[in-house]
Design brief:
Elements (H helix, E strand, L loop, with lengths): L14 H13 L4 H13 L1 H16 L10 H30 L2 E6 L2 E6 H4 L1 H27 L3
Antiparallel strand pairs: 1-2
Helix pairs in contact: 1-2, 1-3, 2-3, 4-6
Length: about 150
């Protein structure tokens, strides 16, 4: 019985397959067999070899897009700073309103301790506060999700 690893299978590899393998090859993440296959193909295909040597994988896989506006980086930075500023403000207000709404006051009345829960004793004042706190927390977590999804 022959060893499977020592068997060589010959087949025709298309340019599209090699183009798919080039990013792995260029990043150095391809297996030795894949590297050998790509190098062998590039030796046989002069046009693809020339394109790869001139511009690397990017010139072969990505079509050039329109030029970016010069102030795009500044706009992106300002947007990111604005989102992070809003996120900090919402966190601070949400925390403060939560603490105030769920707070209370306690005192000793003679020999026993009495505690007055603000939300229970003054609902007309603290229900809107807890509502604003919930709104701040919801918006905070939305902005947090956006900033993580866009990797800010």
């Amino acid at each position: 019985m022959q060893n499977q690893n020592s068997k060589e299978i010959s087949m025709k590899v298309s340019r599209d397959v090699i183009a798919d393998l080039l990013p792995l090859y260029a990043a150095g993440e391809a297996s030795p067999d894949t590297c050998a296959l790509v190098e062998d193909f590039l030796r046989q295909d002069e046009e693809m070899s020339r394109q790869f040597n001139l511009g690397g994988v990017q010139s072969m896989t990505a079509a050039p897009g329109p030029p970016l506006p010069p102030d795009l980086a500044l706009k992106s930075l300002r947007r990111a700073r604005g989102l992070l500023r809003w996120q900090r403000l919402l966190y601070a207000w949400g925390l403060a309103l939560t603490i105030v709404s769920l707070g209370g006051v306690g005192y000793f009345n003679g020999s026993h301790f009495t505690f007055h829960f603000f939300l229970h004793d003054y609902p007309w004042i603290f229900r809107p506060c807890i509502g604003l706190a919930v709104s701040c927390w919801i918006n905070y977590f939305i902005l947090r999700w956006i900033s993580r999804a866009t990797r800010l």
